[in-house]
Amino acid sequence: MYAVFKRELFSQLNSLMAYITIGVFLLAAGLLLWFFPDTSILDYGYAELTGFFSLAPFLFMFLIPALSMRSFAEERREGTYILLAARPLGDWQILLAKYFACLLLILFALLPTLIYYCAVSQLGMPKGNIDTGAVTGSYIGLLLLGAAFAAIGVFASSITKNQVTAFAIAVFTCFICYMGFDAMSQVFAIRYFETALLALSVNEHYQSMSRGVLDTRDLIYFISFVLLFLTAARLAIGGRKW
């Protein structure tokens, strides 16, 4: 499994696409947080990173599908999955190796954003006047959100051999899972329907963690969400004659 994980990670790092995607993510986040007047932290006047954690999910909707779209689609297009499947590895081992490689790339993309925390902490009056607990909870929520979107991306890649199609399916599914249930809860504004739809919303659980409160219900939700899409991906790759 480690060999497949290392192969997948180095394959991503050796391609220009990963660097371009992560670079665009960091550039977009930097411009939105520091330069654009409507979203600038400098114009906001408070030492907090609420703007970043509100914008990051929408950037993730494009970043993560771009990183995960070649997981299985590229293998199918080039016919190399036959060689991979011939190794003494189960479908779950291959799937998890590719999934964890994608998660590590997401972590690489998030690490430079810690500079924002350091900068806002120094700009605060007095210095260090920032809610570290809320920022920590928000980063944990963002990592769990990235894990959920990565599971969607790997699933989308497992059902097609076209990377563009996998990217489009993943972006659409991420958007529906993040915003769709919230919108439906407004349409079906009946007490029980609204509560049930909000309980299914990724955004609702992410916002809960962004407040700095680590609730076991949110953790269970994200773990279940990841397992659901990884199981669907396992069924997709196991039900085909490669």
Structure summarized in a few sentences:
Its main location: membrane. The chain is mainly alpha-helical and 242 residues long.
In words, what does this structure look like?
- The protein is an all-alpha fold and 242 residues long.
- It has one domain (2-238).
- Helices cover 78% and strands 0% of the residues.
- The protein contains 13 helices and no strands.
- The radius of gyration is 19 Å and the shape is globular.
Keyword list:
13 helices, cell membrane, membrane, globular, ABC-type transporter activity, transmembrane helix
Global morphology: globular
Number of strands: 0
Total domain count? 1
Specify the helix fraction band: over 70%
Q: Give the terminus-to-terminus CA distance.
A: 20 Å
Structural class: mainly alpha
Topology:
Blueprint: H1 2-13, H2 16-34, H3 41-44, H4 50-68, H5 73-78, H6 81-85, H7 91-110, H8 114-123, H9 132-158, H10 163-187, H11 191-200, H12 202-210, H13 216-238
Helix pairs in contact: 1-7, 2-4, 2-7, 4-9, 4-10, 7-9, 7-13, 9-10, 9-12, 9-13, 10-11
